[in-house]
Request: fold
Amino acid sequence: MIRGLRTIKYPTPDLAKGKAWYSQVLELEPYFDEPFYVGYNVGGFELGLVPDDTPGADGAVAYWGVDDCAAALQRLTAMGAPILEPLQDVGGGIKIAAVADPFGNSFGIIENPHFNPAEVR
Reply:
């Protein structure tokens, strides 16, 4: 049974640069920091950085919850992240957008007023 997003891995050829960028974006330090994997606990979900594979925007996009999608997108672009998917209302007050991390991976954000993690089983 699928129980929801647990982990998303992003290929990150330069772990030091990736760790610096994601620590700034997420406003927290990794809980696991080794040369083969850097892991962040983000609201009960995991973002993992791995030093192998090929990064890019063609893979899956994980959307990370935010309170205000427009403000979050503005913050990310101010950090130099290029927009891959402009801010859009996809219906029901749900807003999404995506930027590229320093390696070209998609980093999606979602504002969903209907999602209540307390209701997830």
About this structure: The CA atoms of residues 21 and 102 lie 8 Å apart. The chain has two helices and eight strands. The chain has a mean pLDDT of 87. The longest helix spans residues 15-26.
